[in-house]
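Hi support team,

I submitted a single chain yesterday and got back a structure, but I'm not sure I'm reading the token output correctly. Could someone confirm the output below corresponds to the sequence I sent? I've pasted both exactly as they appear in my results page.

Thanks,
R.
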Amino acid sequence: MAFEEGEGFSEILKIVLIGAANVGKTALVYRYVLNELPVALTSTIGVEFTKRVVTHMPTGQKIQLHIWDTAGQERFKSVTKHYYRGADVCIIAYDISNRDSFEEVPNWLAELKDNTPEECIVCLLGNKMDLEVTNHRRVTREEALRYANSHGLVYHETSAFWDREVQMNPDNIVGGIEKIFDKTIGTALGRHSLKDEPKEVLKNNEKGVKLDLQQLYTYHADTRCGC
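Hi R., thanks for writing in. Yes, this is the structure output for that exact sequence:
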């Protein structure tokens, strides 16, 4: 999908990122929106919001993406779960080098099922693939893929440290975050048409939580992001 500026979009898609703390959710948003190295970020407190207009290349349709980045800490769950309402896409992120973050996935999935519409596309996303080359992987692709298939989830792997336009591998599992978003958004558009209610919810919730990624971005070359 191509990025666009301004208005003129015909659809709104609500995308929610959830998962344990420090798996890199905010880093993935930075990479997708800015295509910059996501380092020196602090853990998300509550919920952060940003939006972007993209063009769905097969149809030429302009879509505004509303991206909600939620905190992974237990103390914020009572707040963040309210933002699942009306979601078109939910991404459950985990860290391939952190076994505990993967073992939390069933809890996140159960919470999603209680708070999202049936037609919501759910993607299980293994992040920090850059650590695989240093033998830090603690969750095999086969195990994660089995779990995703058994629960009807889309499955992908990526790294926020990769360029967002890294092409998908031959089995369409591993790739840059933009390619993964493209595939997931395309699935969501094909599955259902958007309802008016989620759009109104987004409009009401937008005030006071909009995230200015460019303003917040800082760079420290010797620090990895764990947000």
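A quick pointer for reading it: The domain at 2-208 is CATH 3.40.50.300 (Rossmann fold). Let us know if anything else looks off.

Best,
Support desk
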